[in-house]
Every structure is written in C-alpha cells, then in structure tokens.
Write a structure and sequence with these properties.
Blueprint lengths: L4 H10 L3 H12 L4 H15 L6 H21 L5 H11 L1 H8 L6 H24 L5 H25 L5 E5 L2 H5 L14 E6 L3 E10 L11 E5 H5 L11 H9 L6 H15 L1
Parallel strand pairs: 3-4
Antiparallel strand pairs: 1-2, 2-3
C-alpha cells in the first residue's frame, strides 16, 4: 500500500457499515507491505470490539489482528511509524484480550505489557536520536513516542498501586479519527482509553496526547495531555536524560531515576483527573 492511501483507507473503514468493514479489512489481509498489514491489524482490532458479536468471534478477530501486526514488523525494512505502531499494539495484546473476555488482567500480564511498551518507547527514542530526517516522518514518530510514553507512565502508576484497577488501551480507529470531518470543529478523537474497574467497568478517561501545545480544541470529556508540560524540565528526547531512558533504567533496577518519574507521573495524573 502506498503511504498516501492509508488515511483514505482508515476513513473509508470508519465510515462504512459492518459488512463493508469486514470486506475492507479482509482485502487488506492480502497487502504485502508493512503499512497494509499494520492497517489490517488495526481494522481487525476494531472488528473485535464491534457490538453484537460473541466473545469467540471477538477473540478470533483479535488473533488475526495480532498476526497482522507480527507480519507488519517482519515486512519492515527499517524502523518506521508502522513498525512502532504494530509493536505498541502487540505489547498490549493481552490487555485487549482480557478486556474482551471481561477478565481483569493479572499483575504479571500488566507488568509484561508495561515492559514491552517501554521497550517500544525506547526503539522510537533511539530512532529519533539517530535519524537525520527532519521532515514530517520524524514528527509522526515523535507523536507515537509521546503516546507510548503516556501509556507507559499510566501503566507504571497502575502497577505501583499493588492492586491494579485500570486497563489502559491504545484507541481503536474510530476513536483515533473521531466523528468530526470538519477541520475547524471541536474535536472528539482520542489516543488512549482508560477503563477503571471498581464497582463496575467504566471508560473513565479519554486521553488525547500532544507532544507540545497547539490550538486544537477538544470536547469536554477528553483530557488533553501535552507531554512537554507534564515532563516540564525533563527532556522527552535526550541520549541520557530523555524520559524513555529513565523508564528503561528504572525497569532494569536503577532506582536513582524513580523520584523524577514519580513527579512526571503525578503531573500526568493532575492533568487527567
């Protein structure tokens, strides 16, 4: 698939009826590019969450999605946004599965998802450190890195509670694109869904992630996280001090960075709550 076709395919899928969605998703299964396989995976993920299908069919769609993301990674000649997006979703495949079966993931699963997500954040971080490309592709990877960091920080908080009651999921195509096609309209799209499991399961937070400030306006039930403001003086991208490096170091036993990460996490929680 040519890169310029991908946004069109996503909007076509989002705006189609269920039968047409299935047809579009199946067509993309035969695409032999990393873009096409990543897109097919995202489409089958959406189909797994369609209302009215039974759990077995939902899990079958999720399995197809995971296979597509695996293929996208294998077909990638180098690390790019499609490779990284596939990695993020594969890192959280067990979280999607637990949610679809109405089971709370256990601590071991949540920790595994966190470790894999941090690893992906560091792949994106390394790409940005080494890349000489100053064009839009860098901005796309930086956007993925920002979303992955917010996901990682929320997973970290969830684990630190000792009794995780949150499920944090990267958004579906329909959520990522939102309902409004008017460029100037108040936006209703979001990047991360946070479900809480207290008395009942609720979609408590819809989080839209921005690397820095912009003028976009979102509906009141969407929390906009500007990562540069959450991190304050801590750089997002830096060989030794970047937030991905701090998460990686803590994950492998370096407690000297824990206080800095705690402050960033508290800043994040203040924004969304």
């Amino acid at each position: 698939m040519h890169p310029e076709r991908e946004p069109h395919e996503r909007f076509l899928f989002k705006n189609s009826e269920q039968e047409s969605r299935i047809e579009i998703a199946r067509k993309n299964l035969h695409d032999t590019t990393n873009i096409g396989q990543q897109l097919a995976g995202d489409m089958f993920l959406e189909l797994a969450f369609e209302q009215g299908i039974n759990t077995d069919q939902a899990l079958a769609n999720l399995e197809i999605a995971g296979n597509c993301w695996d293929k996208s990674i294998l077909l990638s000649k180098y690390i790019d946004s499609h490779y990284l997006s596939s990695c993020v979703r594969l890192s959280n495949l067990s979280m999607y599965r637990s949610f679809l079966t109405n089971e709370m993931a256990d601590l071991e699963q949540i920790e595994k998802a966190y470790y894999d997500t941090v690893e992906t954040a560091n792949l994106a971080h390394e790409y940005l450190l080494q890349s000489q490309d100053k064009l839009s592709s860098n901005n796309v990877v930086l956007g993925i890195l920002s979303e992955t960091l917010v996901l990682s920080l929320l997973q970290r908080f969830n684990i630190s509670s000792g009794n995780p009651q949150w499920t944090i999921l990267p958004s579906l195509i329909s959520q990522d694109l939102g309902k409004n096609s008017n460029h100037n309209a108040v936006k209703n799209s979001w990047d991360l869904s946070v479900f809480t499991h207290y008395d009942e399961t609720e979609l408590s937070y819809k989080i839209q992630v921005k690397t820095a400030y912009n003028n976009d306006t979102y509906e009141n039930d969407i929390q906009v996280v500007r990562l540069s403001e959450v991190c304050k003086s801590q750089p997002i991208v830096n060989k030794t001090k970047g937030v991905p490096r701090l998460l990686y170091r803590e994950m492998y036993g370096d407690s000297s960075v824990t206080e800095k990460l705690d402050v960033i996490t508290e800043n994040l929680l203040d924004v969304i709550d």
